[in-house]
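Example record

Each entry pairs one chain with its bound ligand, coenzyme A.
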Amino acid sequence: MLILRSESASDIAAREALLDTAFGANRRAKTSERLRERRLAAEGLSFTAEIGGEFAATIRLWDIAAGPGCPALLLGPLAVAAHLRGQGIGCAMMRHALAEAAKLGHKAVLLVGDEPYYGRFGFRADVTERLWLPGPFERARLLGLEIEPGALQSARGMVSATGRFAPVPALGDLVRQVEMLAA
Ligand SMILES: CC(C)(COP(=O)(O)OP(=O)(O)OC[C@H]1O[C@@H](n2cnc3c(N)ncnc32)[C@H](O)[C@@H]1OP(=O)(O)O)[C@@H](O)C(=O)NCCC(=O)NCCS
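Structure tokens for the complex follow.
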């Protein structure tokens, strides 16, 4: 049975392993990562899917501004474990995450992704045509969804991160992490 639930601290290792496999070791070079690095995901908007206790999928949303004065969320990364794809888990995660974002009062969501997939949830490229990302991006893959109609009408300029900063790890923790990696 598929369970969709809020992400917990114990999911982080499995989530990071899935993202490494799904997007490759270079995933942190993506421009959308510039809007997530050193930030916490938006409050209440990190989700995990599990099946029979197995980590199956991850999705998170991030606080951003779609240009000055236009608050929005950035969706991603979304990934489903390779052997569980094509069973509707990705769609279930998307619908759940977007419904929770709407419940929390968010009015618009951006993402960088394939329109043939995200179009089914209402994401379109025309609502982002006056926006830029802080790095290289394919314009046709910068998509937006207006949860509230017209919410992206004033979206223009550079997209920027507005989320809470992640706590800086203590030096001792960093040293331990490096030691573990080197071991
Ligand atoms: C994209 C992804 C999240 C979809 O998850 P999933 O659980 O397999 O998706 P679902 O089962 O809900 O939906 C499957 C449908 O999406 C379609 N689909 C999947 N990836 C697609 C893509 N990149 N472009 C267009 N359609 C896509 C499938 O063809 C299928 O279509 P159908 O319903 O008409 O048969 C999953 O393939 C994945 O994790 N991929 C690797 C990471 C990734 O690319 N993430 C998205 C970043 S843009």
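The first strand starts at residue 2 and ends at 6.
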